[in-house]
Amino acid sequence: MAQQATFPRAARLLRPSQYRAVFAHGEKFVCDGFVIIAAANGEDRARLGLALAKRRIRRAVDRSRVKRVVRESFRYVRADLPATDIVVLARNRTATMDNAMLTAQLARVWRRLARSV
Questions:
Q1: Under 8 Å CB-to-CB from 84, ≥6 apart: which residues?
Q2: The dihedral of CA 103, 72, 112, 85: what is its sign?
Q3: How much is the mean pLDDT over the chain?
Q4: pTM
């Protein structure tokens, strides 16, 4: 039976101090739809934080859709990623991209991140 891809509380960035640490010490990965910042953490797993600004994605329905796509993508690669804290930021054109395009970009970034950090 395949391992279930979950997104438990332990796999999330929850406190502002965790986000600040990533912004201060993280490495940046840029693609058309996202800016992803990753920093090594002292944990035994990768953790995800989302910072999708209203300024970049105006409509709430679009922000929610992008969050769902990012979480879903992360859930499936979480076990393969090194122990890093990851913050995902949106870019101006993110809202206009479809789910398949966003997923493909995230897959490329996850592979780059797994090799570099």
A1: 38, 39, 40, 41, 46, 47, 113, 117
A2: positive
A3: 92
A4: 0.91
